[in-house]
From TrEMBL:
Residues 57-78 are annotated as: Disordered. InterPro entries: Uncharacterised_Rv0898c. It comes from Streptomyces muensis. It comes from the Bacteria. Residues 57-72 have a biased composition (Basic and acidic residues). This is DUF2630 family protein.
Amino acid sequence: MQDQDIYHRIAELVEEEHALRDGQSDTAEGRGSRLTTVEQTLDQCWDLLRQRAARREFGQDPNEAHARDVRTVENYQQ
């Protein structure tokens, strides 16, 4: 997956996130569950972009970066 593909996926997810926040879903329960999934997937996408950039910076192949599991990404300390 190339950076452009990841950015495209992020744009799709952000659009869906906005729709969910605006209440454009069947039920509040379904909306909340899907919103959580969308937010986690966005975090994974941003993490993957950061990994790819770091690999390029240090002369490594960015294509060897991979999406990390949600638990890893969600538990980062900022």
